[in-house]
Design a protein that fits this description.
- The chain is an alpha+beta fold.
- The chain has a domain of about 40 residues: 3-Layer(aba) Sandwich (YefM-like fold), CATH 3.40.1620.
- Strands 1-2-3 form a three-stranded mixed beta sheet.
- It is elongated, with a radius of gyration of 22 Å.
- The protein starts with a strand and ends with a helix.
- About 0% of the residues are buried.
């Protein structure tokens, strides 16, 4: 990761962006990060929007705390729990097919 102090930037940000390969350029003001120029190869708009959405970031943080506290289920445990509740994808498809 490259760091660029805004006070020393001598070219437009577009010029710096054009030089990106796979490296992030961190922009700083008084040695504090204020923004970043990030290459967006293979990134869709939805991914970009989610990566900064406060609700999504809160969900990720909550999930990380749960993992750290050991509050996780294996895939088999999750499937069993969903099956008991009748909430598997197959169950929903079957219910829709029965209604039709």
């Amino acid at each position: 990761m490259k760091t660029l102090a805004l006070s020393t930037a001598s070219r437009s940000l577009a010029e710096y962006a054009n030089e990106l390969d796979d490296e992030v350029v961190l922009l700083t003001k008084r040695n504090r990060p204020v923004a970043a120029i990030v290459p967006l190869r293979n990134v869709d708009r939805e991914t970009l929007a989610l990566s900064t959405h406060p609700g999504f970031l809160a969900l990720i943080e909550r999930s990380r705390r749960q993992v750290a506290a050991g509050k996780t289920l294996s895939l088999a445990e999750m499937r069993a729990a969903l099956k008991r509740r009748g909430r598997t994808g197959r169950s929903r498809r079957r219910q829709k097919a029965r209604r039709a």
